[in-house]
Design a protein that fits this description.
The complex is a heterodimer of chains A (about 130) and B (about 1200). With about 130 residues, chain A is mainly α. Chain A contains four helices and no strands. In chain B, strand 22 and strand 23 form a beta hairpin. The chains are: A mainly alpha (about 130), B alpha+beta (about 1200).
């Protein structure tokens, strides 16, 4: 469980790093898109599968905590710019300060959420181990 | 993709070795030799002088315009010239070079040899010089180049560095012969002030010269020439140039000067194309001109005695020569003027690949010397400053100007500098006051700048002195002010800077900011509720542009800012960057001022005297060798297209303009046509006729013969002409209705990717086959919906991806959409939007049924094919620390936070940038913005055009409101609204526009104005804001409730995004004039024509009387509305029909009648037309004709079914504020 959160976290970290590169370095938005887009869908799918597992395990509280993010992911992917392949980022608009700032903020918030979720799961696991 | 752009900025810029890239090596050696010489100025100069004297006569023989150039070089290089011309330039510049070269060689050889004899390195130098000459010639104005040379030679005489150049150019200078060196120098000096340095506007000393500015571009060189010529009479070349200058002066004075400042335009007349710029400049400069004239005359006289005969002869030649160049390249001429020297250098460099050594040598030498840019000097700066003093008569004026300049730039802004920099000669502030003559000169000088800043104002002759604070803050009760629109066009407000900075500031036509007082903090900006941003027109056609060739382009070490007029010099050796505040060293090379030929005056260099300059970049700024001009035409030949008949128009235009396509000997061109298959045309040289190759596999497009599809324009010209003649009839019987645009574009991309260039796509319907096929998305029933307008965004990302790929390969795609039905422009436009192309749309185009559209296409094509073009360009915008770029608007691909990738740049492209304030600006009183556009010219030169804008910081809300530039703000808002309507919805965008007015006025009401009025109060600076926003809401792009085709709407949005401000404003708020009673009152004089200036009318039907005739100027279209009971005299005199009833419904031309009112009307319309690149189509609209709805929809102050009238809108805003 924790390992998967790690994977998600890694994807988010990648996003944060990539956006930071974009902002500070002069990285080409097209390259950036090419590095990020492939990991967006896996991240969302992993998160969705976790939710399914929580559902199966009847972990209602955990599931409840994750539902907003799941909804957000669905909304985010539905409202993505017109594009033929999988992905989320449009290299022609990503350099707009608003969108860039939004993407960065999104990255940090999700990283924080995944970290908390990781510790929450660790706590849950240890609690289960100890109590059993 | 990114490489070219990226590399230049980060890496290349900073350290450009003193020497030119390839040439450097050889050049270095050569310079070394001369190097010592230069200092010895006197010695070498004298020698040279003598030599020239010998030549003086012969040159006459060679008087041929080009001769001048050649002479200089010729001496140096007679041999080299030949070789060079043959090897390097033969292809590109063959013609000009030849002209120049031949004379040079012949006359000068002997002299040149002598010259060389002096300096061993000379031979190299010589070679180089010729190169430079050639370059100049290529630049367009041979004369100019020649002029520059003479100039350089002068420089040489005076300055040691000059010696080298002198050696080359010196020959031309007959100076020596004319007088003792010194004597000559004095003479020359005198001459200089009068003539040569117009270009140098920056050049202080030459304030008077400035007058020439009109000519400036061309003139400068000329003047130089003239100088040389005058001095020398000897130098063939030089003599020629002078005459032209004289001629100009004379002409000016004769024609219109006396009457008007505009007369200056008269000068421009010589260069018609440039007219506009000229006019403005001219106006500014006219006074100077007159002065200059007087000065020049005196000078001339002084000089003339010796050379007069020669001069006269030369003059004619020179003038003639000049004219052509100007005509050919309206834009460049200016550059050329200054450039001559620069160009020379460049070319030298370019050519240098083989022989460059010669030119480089001088340069490098100069660099070594510290002053090295004689050429540059000649071009940009004027050495005259020192010189002027010598002449008694002229002296006062010139001297005065010099001082004025010197002190001015720094005096106020950077007091500290003055002491250090002042020359011995001009230590005192010229402070106009010193002497009356001086004063006058000074004034003129001053005027010029304003002129530059306010071209329009100068043109109009109504210089609105832009509002002082109190005026712009004067509260206006909008609901009670009935005539809010001023009678005269609205000019950009002038930033509240001190006089010196004002003069140096960038022209508002190129660079404007929505707030001319930048708020100190983001909080203050938020309070003001006004948009902060820049509007750019970076590649505008300019008539006067200092071009600088220098081994070292001086830039800040940390932020890479180019040195500009707003940096401060801490002492002679250090300057402080005005963007990042880092202290940088002044390179040794920069210490020498070519204009003044003095050392230790970095603040007088042209870079520091002009806020708009162009650098010739070295190889450090290239990722690959500069690409040739490559043009590919992709033409739809499906049944629909053939039916519309655009092929006839296009092929005709192409045939007419084939020789005018910008480019050099490497220019390549290709054609593709497509319907359901793709047709390539093999135009390989040697074929007896064009070969058509058909590829029917549109799913996997390949190039049938990769080599011969794009062919050299000159080698295959006959084949190309054959093809163009045959094309319109090749598909007349086609039954193919499908259009495989996507695959055709893929093929075009494959074809272009090795070189980059421009793809022009002509499309007449929805693409229906292969990749990128589109479906109709428009529901005609929704056209007048007031609710939701859908499908403003693309339906597929195919075209966007393609555009990004193209952009990466430095290829721009321009779209011409000629369609009678919905063609999903929203999707198709992406191919141009992201590849920095441009979009043209001709709804319901048909060559016989819709002749006005056909005429428009024809005119647009003429402009499109012949306008200047820059390839593989990048544009970086820098601003003072604390500000940052937020969002960009225009056609480009944003590569990083401040870098735009532009595969092509054209003079009609505008950009907008939103800014945000990230750090408080409390510790600075000025902020600067710098745009650097790096591009490859059609001649294969890498160039950097730099604009710098300086604005004060405002600390209070009142300051911010006082400095609002309404037009810029509205244009920026329009750009933002387009984004909003695509990303969100149209109604959101409309709400945002209304809110912008409500918020800003309520913020003003609650904070700044203490008056408690019942009405709607706005500061005077914002009084037009509600009107313009209302106009925007009624614009095709944003209107609702009125039937608007989706493509029309999307096209209007595209135009808002990529039009420069001047054109956009006309589109948003057209100008209405009453033209049935034109009088000469307040008229201006342009090129010997009297142009009436009728007052602006507000856009309301109440102004339309049935007895009148009105002209509406909508930017790309003119309407003439004829009232029902319009005076029959007017109809007969102007329209050529006996009465109202007999006027035809479709009339698109005014007949040339020999009546006063017809003449006035036509000259007014011509004047309006000349002021814009695209020649608008004229429609005569009768009061009763069905076409009048089109006219009436532009009357935005009136109420329509779906929209509020202006007064209602004001009430609505007031209501919102009170809520």
């Amino acid at each position: 469980m924790s390992r998967t959160f790690g994977a998600e976290g890694r994807a988010t970290c990648l996003a944060i790093i990539a956006f930071d590169e974009l902002k500070t370095d002069y990285k080409n938005p097209i390259d950036q898109r090419n590095t990020l887009d492939p990991v967006v869908l896996p991240e969302y799918l992993i998160h969705a599968s976790f939710c399914v597992m929580f559902l199966c395990a009847a972990e209602w509280l955990t599931l409840g905590l994750n539902m907003p993010l799941l909804a957000y992911h669905i909304w985010r992917y539905m409202s993505r710019p017109v594009m033929s392949g999988p992905g989320l980022y449009d290299p022609t608009t990503i350099m707009n300060a608003d969108i860039l700032a939004y993407c960065q903020k999104e990255g940090w918030c999700k990283l924080a959420f995944y970290l908390l979720a990781l510790f929450y799961c660790l706590y849950g696991m240890i609690y289960v181990l100890v109590s059993s | 993709m990114s490489a070219p752009a990226g590399s230049p900025h980060p890496a290349a810029s900073a350290r450009i070795p003193p020497k030119l890239g390839g040439a450097a090596a050889s050049g270095a050696a050569a310079p070394a030799g001369p190097g010592p010489g230069p200092h010895q100025q006197n010695g070498p100069a004298q020698n040279q002088m003598q030599v020239p004297s010998e030549y003086g006569l012969p040159p006459q023989n060679y008087i041929v315009p080009s001769g001048h150039y050649s002479q200089g070089p010729g001496k140096m290089t007679s041999l080299p010239l030949d070789s060079q011309s043959g090897d390097y330039y033969s292809g590109l510049y063959t013609v000009p070079t030849q002209n120049v070269a031949t004379p040079n060689t012949a006359s000068q050889q002997a002299g040149a040899q002598q010259m060389y004899g002096r300096a061993p390195p000379a031979p190299h130098a010589v070679g180089s010089t010729p190169g430079s000459f050639q370059g100049a010639s290529s630049s367009a104005s041979h004369l100019q180049t020649s002029a520059s040379q003479p100039y350089s030679s002068f420089v040489n005489h005076y300055n040691s560095p000059a010696t080298h150049s002198a050696s080359s150019s010196v020959a031309s200078q007959g100076f020596p012969s004319t007088c003792g060196h010194y004597a000559l120098s004095t003479v020359s000096n005198a001459a200089y002030p009068s003539i040569s340095y117009p270009s140098l506007p920056a050049g202080d000393p030459y304030g008077p010269q400035m007058f020439t500015s009109q000519n400036a571009p061309a003139v400068r060189p000329i003047r130089d020439n003239s100088f040389s010529g005058q001095n020398t009479a000897v130098s063939h070349p030089s003599p020629l140039p002078p005459p032209p200058s004289r001629q100009y002066h004379q002409q000016q004075s004769l024609s219109g000067y006396s009457t008007f400042s505009w007369s200056a335009p008269g000068l421009p007349s010589t260069q018609d194309n440039l007219i506009r710029n000229h006019t403005s400049l001219a106006t500014a400069s006219n006074p100077t001109n007159t002065v200059a004239d007087s000065l020049s005359c005196s000078v001339m006289q002084n000089v003339q005695p010796k050379s007069s005969p020669v001069v006269s002869t030369v003059v004619s030649g020179a003038s003639s020569t000049r004219m052509p160049p100007a005509a050919n390249r309206p834009v460049e001429p200016v550059a050329s003027v200054t450039q001559p020297s620069e160009l020379l250098q460049q070319k030298g460099v370019d050519s240098s690949s083989t022989t460059s050594s010669a030119s480089p040598m001088p340069n490098s030498y100069d660099a070594l010397e510290g002053g090295s840019y004689p050429d540059v000097l000649s071009s940009s700066a004027s050495s005259p400053a020192p010189d002027p003093a010598p002449d008694p008569v002229p002296a006062p004026a010139p001297a005065a100007p010099q001082p004025s300049k010197m002190p001015k730039p720094f005096g106020y802004g950077y007091p500290t500098l003055q002491p250090g920099y002042q020359n011995a000669t001009a230590p005192l502030n010229s402070g106009g006051p010193s002497s009356s003559p001086v004063y006058s000169g000074f004034q003129q000088y001053a005027q010029q700048y304003p002129g530059m800043n306010q071209l329009s104002s100068s043109l109009g002759g109504l210089s609105l002195q832009s509002s002082s604070q109190p005026e712009s803050l004067r509260p206006v009760n909008l609901t009670q002010e009935r005539n809010i629109l001023p009678m005269t066009p609205v000019w950009a407000p002038v930033p509240n800077l001190n006089l010196d900075l004002k003069k140096l500031n960038c022209s508002p036509d190129s660079f404007r900011c929505t707030l001319t007082n930048i708020p100190q903090t983001q909080a203050l900006l938020n309070k003001a509720k006004l948009p902060l941003g820049l509007l750019l027109h970076p590649f505008r056609d300019l008539t006067q542009l200092p071009v600088i060739t220098s081994n070292t382009i001086v830039r800040c070490r940390s932020c890479r800012t180019y040195i500009n007029p707003f940096v401060s010099f801490i002492d002679q050796r250090r300057w402080k960057c005005n963007l990042c505040y880092r202290v940088n060293d002044v390179p040794e090379e920069f210490m020498y001022n070519p204009l003044t030929r003095s050392y230790g005056e970095p603040h007088k260099r042209p870079e520091v005297q002009n806020s708009t300059v162009e650098f010739i970049a070295s190889s450090d700024y290239m990722l690959r060798p500069p690409q040739p001009a490559v043009y590919l035409f992709v033409l739809d030949v499906s049944h629909n297209a053939v039916e519309a008949g655009y092929l006839t128009v296009l092929c005709q235009s192409l045939l007419e303009n084939l020789d005018k396509l910008p480019g050099d000997s490497r220019t390549r061109i290709g054609f593709m046509t497509f319907d359901s298959t793709i047709h390539f045309y093999n135009l390989q040289e040697g074929l007896s006729q064009p070969q058509m190759l058909i590829v029917s596999d549109i799913d996997d497009v390949f190039l049938p013969t990769p080599d011969s599809l794009l062919v050299n324009l000159y080698e295959s010209k006959e084949l190309i002409k054959d093809l163009l003649n045959a094309l319109p009839n090749m598909f007349t019987n086609t039954r193919e209705t499908h259009s495989a645009l996507g695959p055709a574009l893929q093929a075009a991309f494959k074809l272009m990717s090795p070189t980059g260039g421009r793809v022009s796509v002509f499309q007449t319907q929805l693409p229906s086959l292969g990749a990128g096929l589109l479906q109709s998305r428009e529901d005609p029933n929704q056209r007048s919906s007031t609710k939701v307008v859908q499908h403003l965004g693309p339906a597929t990302d195919f075209y966007k991806k393609l555009a990004l790929d193209c952009s990466g390969q430095q290829t721009a795609v321009d779209l011409f959409l000629l369609s009678s039905q919905y063609s999903d422009l929203a999707s198709l436009a992406c191919m141009s939007k992201y590849s920095a192309g441009c979009i043209y749309y001709y709804p319901s185009f048909h060559y016989t049924h819709n002749p006005s559209q056909a005429e428009k296409l024809q005119k647009d094509l003429k402009r499109y094919l012949t306008r200047k073009i820059g390839f593989e360009a990048v544009m970086r915008i820098r601003c003072t620390k604390g500000l940052s770029m937020h969002t960009f608007h225009g056609n480009f691909f944003v590569r990083s936070t401040d870098l735009l990738s532009l595969a092509n740049i054209n003079p009609d492209a505008g950009f907008a940038v939103q800014l945000s304030i990230e750090e408080s600006l409390t510790d600075t009183s000025l902020v600067c913005f710098q745009t650097a556009l790096l591009y490859t010219s059609s001649k294969g030169e890498r160039r950097i055009r730099v604009h710098t804008l300086c604005l004060p910081v405002g600390s209070s809300l009142a300051d911010v409101y006082a400095g609002v530039d309404v037009q810029a703000a509205v244009c920026l808002l329009a750009n933002m609204a387009v984004d909003r309507s695509i990303s969100s919805s149209l109604s959101d965008a409309r709400d945002a526009l209304v809110n912008a007015v409500v918020d800003s006025l309520s913020a003003y009401g609650s904070t700044v104005s203490n008056l408690q009025h019942s009405g709607l109060i706005a500061p005077s600076s914002l009084k037009l804001f509600p009107l313009y926003v209302l106009a925007l809401l009624k614009q095709k792009a944003f209107r609702t409730g009125t039937s608007t085709r989706l493509d029309d709407r999307v096209y209007a949005m595209c135009q808002i995004k990529c039009q420069p401000l001047v054109h956009l404003m006309k589109m948003i708020h057209p100008n209405l004039y009453r033209i049935d009673r034109l009088t000469d009152e307040g008229a201006i004089h342009v090129n010997d024509r009297v142009v009436p200036q009728p007052p602006l009318q507000k856009l309301s039907a109440e102004k339309l009387t049935r007895e009148g005739a009105f002209l509406m100027d909508c930017g790309s279209i003119f309407y003439i509305w004829i009232g029902k009971s319009c005076d029959n005299n007017f109809i007969e005199d102007v329209l050529g029909y006996p009465d109202f009833a007999s006027i035809p419904q479709k009339m698109t031309h005014l007949p040339e009648l020999d009546t006063l009112s017809s003449e006035r009307a036509r000259s007014f319309i011509t004047w309006l037309r000349d002021s814009r690149p695209l020649s608008p189509v004229l429609h005569v609209v009768k009061d009763e004709s069905p076409a009048k709805t089109e006219f009436f929809q532009h009357l935005i102050e009136d109420r329509t079914e779906a929209a509020l009238s202006y007064y209602e809108f004001l009430l609505h805003v007031q209501q919102q504020i009170c809520k």
